[in-house]
UniProtKB/TrEMBL annotation:
Keywords: Aminotransferase, Pyridoxal phosphate, Transferase. Residues 31-382 form the Aminotransferase class I/classII large domain. It is an enzyme of class 2 (transferase). Its EC number is 2.6.1.17. The keyword Transferase applies. It comes from Microlunatus panaciterrae. This is N-succinyldiaminopimelate aminotransferase. The keyword Isomerase does not apply. InterPro entries: Aminotransferase_I/II_large, Kynurenine-oxoglutarate_AT, PyrdxlP-dep_Trfase, PyrdxlP-dep_Trfase_major, PyrdxlP-dep_Trfase_small. Its cofactor is pyridoxal 5'-phosphate.
Length: 386
């Protein structure tokens, strides 16, 4: 008998598949290249600052918008890297990871009947938050094999009901980084249609080769309509700390704060001074991380090629995509379910990130943010498929 209390409003195929893949990893002793979290820690000075903060008694509620030193560090970091200037007291909100910032922004501004234009495949929390707000998501395909945005399709997605645009670059799960010329056109379209824009920039520093991350807020007419969201989790390999932030004009931050205070209220008191220090002093560490991740990307790509796959080399994030049809599969979900038993490796099927599941069906996502020995062992195991 179905439970009378079962929630029907929000469904997350990704949550179900991630749980299934994690269970398969445990039951088969597989290497988990599915879920995207590193298996090494961030800089030692950051970790020590958190330990000291706990010892110093910084364990109670921090200020609602985040401690002042962290808000100032976020502002200084943004100015230093992008030449964008914000007021640390009025235009910054510290959140429980980027996920909460995204949820609070969507819930603050999207009403039932509003449409949200977003790049498909979607990071899973977008769909859930839009559903919770009663909005309708309108996907614009960033589809394989090239994962390139069609600007004409993007502009056609706008209607009289479009309230918000959600841009994720560097893009999870494809690893695409929108180039400056496309961002300029996106900015023009958003200004022409007078819409609010939310930018998920959590992988802002994890870009490779000649790719550059340029915030959409830096284009003409965009700062006043853009909520920039980022997080320490990806930049400083501290995904479990859940320290994120939103930057936006004061009136937008006020509305987002009004929602945020009824989600988690506040969080991460001893982690906030540690992230403030990391933002202020960690540029060199992040630069080394970027070089190391690019090398890991190439290591995994070489291994995937050796088994007959042609990875779409990501220009950002720490995820890589392959089409599994060369191995005789037409369904990435079937492939991922059989992979642990066949060779002891776990990946994630792309289709769980799509409304148009057929577009994602043959693709699989692999995480390369793991120690070299883990990636090398995974490649050895995957060779059994060749």
């Amino acid at each position: 008998m179905a439970s009378p209390w079962k929630a029907d409003r929000v469904r997350s195929a990704t949550t179900t598949i991630f749980a299934e893949m994690s269970a398969l990893a445990l039951s088969t002793g597989s290497i988990n290249l599915g879920q995207g979290f590193p298996d090494t820690d961030g800089p030692d000075f950051m970790l020590e600052t958190a330990r000291q903060a706990i010892a110093d008694g910084i364990n109670q509620y921090p200020p609602g918008r985040g401690i002042q030193s962290l808000r100032q560090a976020v502002v200084d970091h943004t100015s230093r890297h992008y030449g964008l200037h914000y007021d640390a007291d009025l235009e910054v909100l510290v959140t429980t990871g980027a996920t909460e910032a995204l949820a609070a922004a969507i819930l603050a501004f999207v009403n039932p009947g509003d449409e949200v234009v977003a790049l498909e495949p979607f990071y899973d929390s977008y769909a859930a938050s839009i559903d919770l707000a009663g909005g309708t998501r309108v996907g614009v395909g960033l589809f394989g094999p090239d994962f390139v945005l069609d600007l004409a399709e993007f502009e056609r997605a706008f209607t009289a009901h479009t309230k918000m645009v959600l841009i994720n670059s560097p893009h999870n799960p494809t690893g695409a980084v929108l180039p400056p010329e496309q961002l300029a056109e996106i900015a023009r379209i958003c200004v022409d249609h007078d819409v609010l824009v939310v930018c998920d920039e959590v992988y802002e520093h994890l870009v490779y080769d000649d790719a550059t991350h340029v915030p959409l807020a830096s284009y003409p007419g965009m700062r006043e309509r853009t909520v920039r969201i980022s997080s320490s989790g990806k930049t400083f390999s501290a995904t479990g700390w859940k320290i994120g932030w939103a930057l936006a004009p004061a009136e937008l931050i006020t509305e987002i704060t009004a929602v945020k205070q009824f989600l988690t209220y506040v969080s991460g008191a001893p982690f906030q001074p540690a992230i403030a220090r990391a933002l202020n002093e960690g540029d060199d560490w992040v630069a080394e991380l970027r070089v190391d991740l690019q090398r890991k990307r190439d290591l995994l790509a070489e291994g995937l090629r050796s088994m007959g796959l042609s990875p779409a080399l990501p220009r950002g994030t720490y995820f890589m995509t392959t089409d599994v049809r060369p191995l005789g599969y037409h369904d990435g979900l079937e492939f991922c379910r059989e992979l642990p038993g066949r060779c002891g490796v776990v990946a994630i099927p792309h289709q769980v990130f799509y409304d148009n599941t057929a577009a994602g069906a043959p693709y699989v996502r692999w995480a390369f943010c793991k120690r070299d020995e883990v990636l090398e062992q995974a490649v050895e195991r995957l060779a059994k498929l060749g």
